[in-house]
Amino acid sequence: MQVELKPLQLSDADTLYEFFQKLPASENGKNNRAHGLSREEFTNWVQKEINYSQGKNLPEGYVPGTTFVMYVDNIPVGVSNLRHYLNEKLEKNGGHIGTHILPEYRGRGFGNIITLETLKKAKEIGIKRVLVFHYDNNVPAWRTSEKMGGKLDSINMVNGIKARKYIIDTSKL
Ligand SMILES: CC(C)(COP(=O)(O)OP(=O)(O)OC[C@H]1O[C@@H](n2cnc3c(N)ncnc32)[C@H](O)[C@@H]1OP(=O)(O)O)[C@@H](O)C(=O)NCCC(=O)NCCS
Description:
The chain is an alpha+beta fold. It has a single domain (3-127), classed as 3-Layer(aba) Sandwich (Aminopeptidase), CATH 3.40.630.30. Helices cover 31% and strands 32% of the residues. The protein has a 4-stranded antiparallel β-sheet, with helices on both faces. Strands 7-9-8 form a 3-stranded antiparallel β-sheet, with helices on one face. A hairpin with a 2-residue loop joins strand 8 and strand 9. Bound molecules: coenzyme A.
């Protein structure tokens, strides 16, 4: 099995349009803002994500972040987002990493793999202490963080829902 985590790029927009339409719009606080877009709007969204990755045209309160697509044997199966650093708000809710696997590929270890591959990217850009938040009832999500050596820091209310905050030390990967 060949796994590749690739930053979103315009040249892949054609092949990724259907994938982003299949990925649910919103689950457990993870949003897919490309869901429901027309093909043309999708290209604009991809360009916007590339800009954010380069720190360009960031809306107020946003930090630079990269959207990655995970390919397994050249088939897109999941998406992750990596924020390059956090502001005060994201330290309390949001964190560095979000992951999203196509429903038909869940429960086969891909959540663990995309988390590990995204943590490696975090390490590459110098992030030593990665913060991740998961709703307490989202067991598969917080298990991926525990699997990567994440330590439970605290349990807080986020958007009125009980959420776990994990800290993952990338030097131990
Ligand atoms: C969270 C998500 C990325 C996990 O992906 P996945 O491919 O199903 O995860 P894996 O198959 O790698 O499983 C991860 C862990 O959860 C466990 N798990 C998987 N499905 C489970 C379930 N239904 N109930 C309990 N545990 C489960 C696995 O056993 C594994 O733990 P282990 O390695 O200790 O055995 C995926 O469910 C998803 O995309 N959910 C919607 C979006 C989301 O919630 N994102 C996270 C936001 S913080």
